[in-house]
């Protein structure tokens, strides 16, 4: 069983932001299982898991003097190989679509794009499309339930893994999250889909053991 993390406590601790620090919560889903056993992961390697949604909600913080508090940003990516143990670094060529919060002004949008390029690594090195859309994100800290709606392109809902989600009883958080996070827990994607353009594929993975929720603290 995956260890349940007290994200509520951690977020409370993280609420005391240091100067120059950006903090918030992170949601992720992939088209492969991340809360799983080795035999299930091996059966998917090289065949699936090339797609992912990475999303950040910034509770508080600024980048290059631009306040990003309360804003969201989403990166949807497609690789040529499975996003596995080495994450993006071992997944071949990567293309991505960047979705920026429509509540951000022009300066904040530029800063959000810089934020993603800085903290998403290779996932953001080849952005083929940028769109400004309404983005809503939430995280129930006690139950590890996350939700994300980004325009008409992205929907994501997650819940905590339960005993009934175990098939082989060897389930663990098998792959690391794609983004650097301070603490995280693996869970279940109850609804996860990309219906946008730019990546040559659309996909949906309901009721899949493919989600991460976490908190991040970047900067000093």
Number of domains: 1
Regions with pLDDT < 50 over 5+ consecutive residues?
A: 1-17, 37-43
Average per-residue pLDDT, rounded, comes to: 83
Oligomer: single chain
- The backbone outline, from C-alpha atoms, is globular
- Number of E-type strands: 15
Strand content: 35-45%
The number of helical runs is 3
Distance between the termini: 34 Å
Structural class: mainly beta
The share of residues in helices is 10-25%
The topology string of helices and strands comes to HEEHEEEEEHEEEEEEEE
Q: What is the CA-atom radius of gyration, in angstroms?
A: 16 Å
Largest sheet: 11 strands, mixed
Written account of the structure:
There is one protein chain. This protein has 220 residues and is mainly β. The chain has one domain (7-219). Helix content is 13%, strand content 44%. The chain has three helices and 15 strands. The protein has helices at residues 7-14, 38-44, 106-119, and strands at 21-30, 35-36, 51-60, 62-63, 66-67, 72-79, 94-101, 127-133, 135-140, 145-150, 154-160, 172-173, 183-194, 203-204, 208-219. Strands 1, 3, 6, 7, 8, 9, 10, 11, 13, 14 and 15 form an eleven-stranded mixed sheet that branches. A two-stranded antiparallel sheet has the order 2-12. Strand 9 (135-140) and strand 10 form a beta hairpin. It starts with 6 loop residues before the first helix and ends with a strand. The relative contact order is 0.26. The model is unreliable at 1-17 and 37-43 (pLDDT under 50).
Jot down its keywords.
single chain, 220 residues, mainly beta, eleven-stranded mixed sheet, two-stranded antiparallel sheet, 15 strands, disordered N terminus
């Amino acid at each position: 069983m995956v260890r349940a993390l007290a994200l509520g406590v951690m977020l409370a601790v993280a609420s005391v932001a240091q100067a120059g620090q950006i903090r918030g919560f992170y949601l992720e889903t992939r088209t492969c299982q991340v809360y799983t056993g080795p035999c299930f992961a091996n059966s998917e390697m090289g065949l699936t898991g090339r797609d992912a949604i990475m999303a950040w909600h910034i509770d508080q913080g600024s980048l290059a003097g631009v306040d990003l508090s309360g804003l969201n940003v989403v990166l949807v990516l497609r690789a040529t190989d499975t996003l596995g143990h080495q994450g993006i670094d071992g997944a071949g060529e990567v293309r991505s679509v960047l979705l920026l919060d429509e509540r951000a002004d022009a300066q904040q949008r530029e800063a959000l794009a810089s934020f993603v390029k800085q903290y998403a690594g290779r996932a953001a090195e080849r952005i083929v499309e940028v769109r400004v859309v309404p983005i809503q994100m939430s995280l129930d800290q006690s139950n590890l339930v996350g939700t994300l709606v980004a325009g008409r392109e992205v929907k994501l809902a997650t819940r905590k893994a339960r005993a009934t989600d175990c098939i082989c009883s060897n389930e663990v958080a098998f792959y690391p999250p794609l983004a650097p996070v301070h603490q995280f827990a693996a869970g279940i994607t109850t609804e996860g889909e990309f219906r946008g353009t730019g990546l040559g594929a659309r996909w949906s993975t309901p009721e899949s053991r493919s989600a991460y929720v976490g908190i991040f603290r970047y900067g000093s």
